[in-house]
Amino acid sequence: MMKVISIFLMSHILICASLNAQIANLKESGMESLKKNSIYFEILGNAAVWSLNYDRIVPLKNELAVLIRIGGNEYHGYDTNKLSFNFLGTAGILYGDHIHFFETSIGYTHFTGDPDRLIVLTGGYRRQGQKGLVIRATPMYIYNTEKGDTFGNSLWFGLSFGYSF
After folding, report:
1. Confidence (pLDDT) at 26
2. In the chain, which residue ranges form alpha helices assigned H by DSSP?
3. Closest Cα to residue 47, out of 108, 103, 135?
4. What is the DSSP letter of 153?
5. CB of 54 within 8 A of CB of 39?
6. Chain-wide mean pLDDT for the chain?
7. Could you please report the per-residue DSSP string of 75-106?
8. Angle at 155 between CA 152 and CA 158, to 5 degrees
9. Three-class secondary structure of residue 38 per DSSP
10. Is the N or the C terminus of the chain less surrounded, counting Cβ atoms within 10 Å?
11. What is the pTM (predicted TM-score) of this model?
């Protein structure tokens, strides 16, 4: 009888330990295991030419997170030697598994040397590896709130490379 009880207890301990390990792996495969901070260089994109960016991921559910981004660049206009700084801010949603994500956002870009004020709607792909590499490919629609300007009110594209930590 004691042998049967021992086998019964040992089998239940092994099953429970195995289930706990599987649950831990499931938790680590979602947004909780994702590195929350990223810095990256974007070519074209929200700031029109290039930008340096920082974003923060705030997990909501296993496959869903909120994304807050700030960035900027310096820019010499084609008609002046005056240095201008441009700033951007974005809020969005990240959906996906532990490496591949769909990223959608709305952003605002402010140009200090030009009257342009851009509202940017994006929807694209984000790869964020476990070792830190971030790659983003984001088609976007840019709306320029300043009338009569030639940039904006069109489809655009951004490509980003960076590091998450």
Report:
1. 46
2. 2-29
3. 108
4. S
5. yes
6. 85
7. EE-TT---EEEEEEEEEEEEEESSSEEEEEEE
8. 95
9. strand
10. N
11. 0.77
